[in-house]
Each structure stands twice: as C-alpha cells, then as structure tokens.
Amino acid sequence: MDSINRNQPEENRRDLSGADAIERVKDMIEDADTCFMCTGGNLGPSRGVRPMSVREVDDAGAIWFLSSVDSHKNHELETNPMVKLMFQVDKHAGFLEIDGHAEVSQDKARIKQLWDAHLKVWFTEGEDDPRITVLKVTPKFGYYWDNKHGSVVAGAKMAVGAVLGKTLDDSIEGTLTF
Length: 178
Hints:
Number of domains: 1
Shape: elongated
Strand content: 25-35%
CATH topology: Pnp Oxidase, Chain A
Order of helices and strands: HEHEEEEHEEHEHE
Largest sheet: 9 strands, mixed
Low-confidence stretches: none
Oligomer: single chain
Mean pLDDT: 87
CATH class: Mainly Beta
Radius of gyration: 19 Å
Distance between the termini: 24 Å
CATH superfamily: Electron Transport, Fmn-binding Protein, Chain A
Number of strands: 9
CATH architecture: Roll
Helix content: 25-40%
Number of helices: 5
C-alpha cells in the first residue's frame, strides 16, 4: 500500500470488473472524449504515440475510432494489435489507462454510424473517403484514478485536510478487468 494511502481515513481503492468496469470506462471516456493511443511499432516521428478522438464506447466496452488506412498506427497494428490508451478527464482528476486489442476494418456501415461532419478535415471526401478505417479497441485490463464525489467535494476535502494537517482527499483508484 502506498504511504499516502495509509493516511487515508476512508477507503480509496475499488477494483472493478465486468459490467462495473465497463460503466466506469464509459463514464470517464464520455467526459474525456480524446486520448493518447500508443502502439508498439514506434513508426514515425511520434514514436507510436498519438492523440485520438473517441467516436463511441459501446455497451460491451469496445472503444471505437476512425483512422486513415495509410497512417503509421494502422501499419503498426498490422504487426502488433495491442494498444495502450491513456485518458485525462480534467486537470485534477479522471485518469484512465487501458490495455487492449485493436481490430482494423473498412466496414462502411460502421463508418457511417461513427461519422461526424468535423471529420472531413482529415477525410476530405467525406464518409465515403476510401482512406477511412474503423479501429475497434477491445479492453483487456486497465487502471483508473478519480474522485468519488466530484471536483468540488474533492477540493473542499483537500482544503479542510490542509487546515487540519490530515490526509482528506476524495480519491478512488483501482484495477479494471474486462
């Protein structure tokens, strides 16, 4: 146990699995909207790390993205489909990391479901652009750090704790198993 956690007067760890893990992920990603996706191939100047916009998290917990068929990430996923996704919900809380398995397809019906007009910046021919691929990431494991009761309560607890000289934070963290 971490030394800071020994000073906690209340429980601050909750490991989640199955439907509880999926619900936590959906809630956090809905607020974060974007992440860093890390692939193992380390191609290109970003060394396998790039920001990505989440298009959807489905009820089974799969995380969906759109990508270009000729991107470094798609080439890297051909060799090694394992990815790490890292999210930050806000400045002080809501951190999430997920290890998962990525699948690449050009499913036109799924592209249509995930399409948004803003994506035309990258896919200039619109939703029928032949370069568009769908990335489906199926989570395997993860870890989260968050507040139990939101930023206002967390801030109040920290302020009171500072005045009293006690560890009073509102944090919660734990493993995610899918």
